[in-house]
Design goal:
The chain has 491 residues and is α/β, with parallel strands linked by helices. It contains 20 helices and nine strands. The chain has a five-stranded parallel beta sheet with strand order 2-3-4-1-5, with helices on both faces. Strand 2, helix 8 and strand 3 form a beta-alpha-beta unit.
Amino acid sequence: MFQNSENEKLTQKNLEKNLKMMGLSAIVLIVLFGYTLIKSENTIQGSGYYIGVGFLFVLLILTLFLQKYKDRIQKIIPKNKFQQQLDQASQKIDDEVTTKDQKTTAIESTSSNISFKDIAGIEDIKGELEEVVDFLNNPKKYQKYGVNLPKGVLLVGPPGVGKTLIARAVAGEADVPFFYQSGASFVHIYVGMGAKKVRELFTAAKAQAPSIIFIDEIDAVGKMRGVGSNDEREATLNELLTQMDGFNGSSGVMVIAATNKIEVLDDALLRAGRFDRRVFLSLPSKEDRVKILNLYLKDKKANFDIEKLATQTSGFNSSALATLINEALLNMIKRDGTIILEDDITIAKQKIEFGKKQIQILTDDQKEILATYQASKAFVSQTNLNLFDQGIEQRDIVFASKSQLEQKIKNYLAGSVALEVLKNEPYAVFEDEIKRAYEIASNMVERYKMDDSIDHIIKNCRAKLKDEILENKDQLERLKQILLKDEKIVF
């Protein structure tokens, strides 16, 4: 469009220049003819000279006429083929941009018909989120005491544990508009488009408040700034931070986000005042899997041992369990049956297990090794753990002492040291925990100057752990048996 305007200006300028030259030439020639007639000694005979003077006058009048009506004449003059193609291409680009912009602004809410009754195995999570639902339903109940709605809730957990389903359940329980966006939908090629979409999303949510904004896989847009620099992503993240600062708890807008990589998120997103609450979800325990299987088998005829199936599906998330039941139903239909039998479950389980990670499909020996590892870690750290938890919740210490940092190292090394002591050889289980232990020891030496050697710190912590494990073998065995039976330890 800009190029088209420039071409029109250039054409108009050339036309004006040509008309001025025509008029000036006509005036000069008339003056010369007049001078010749006056100064000539001989009488000019014939009509040729007078015809020439008359033509010049006509030319001058025509020039004045063209100058007066040049705008109309310019529209009549046909454009060349190249100019026509250029104008058509320019108009096509303008139409595409307009259409794309209209599509981008079409952010609409949906209603959710899912409730907490449709989700099983997350009793602890429901307790925290029911309070959020009450905030949305009865804001005045809290505002009269000066309590504002939390700005954001961050759902953290591995894939397939039901983070999106939980967010929809909160919207369904509260009966409020639900705005769903994936983090990847904010990432555009052109700088500014993602930030524009964030503004439109929050504007639409505020207009329909109380409402819920759900951003799935927020790590796609919320990664730490400065790491793998991306101007568009960082501009979008800055706009998201600004929007979350721009409304308070009384606006009635709740932001729920989901991620399975909290460690890559920018610190500004995680500070208080943005995502005020963090809800950690883990793989379902045996008790949770029984509840989930009963939910998926509701109104279906089945003839197999659900408790046994729950034991056999260690490491399955809720999505995998749903797929398992669905595959069993498909096999039942294939054999023209009306009841899900043990054989249907066996065939379905083989299909599901074939593509899963080995750590989630454990033999009895593997499960015993993992239980020993996790029982030792739970005992040393004195924290609740599930059989498949990778890592433990670490609380930030503002002014950490040397002994507190050493305790963190021991928490990370406890499982591997226990296996080495109780099984008489080292095992490779969660290598990330060993890496984190060495990172803390490195900070103690290089940043805090608490010791002279990383190896000295690690050896000292391992020696203390070995003594502690040998002194408490019976307690560790008891915790291991609890994990093997219930797949979770609660202190």
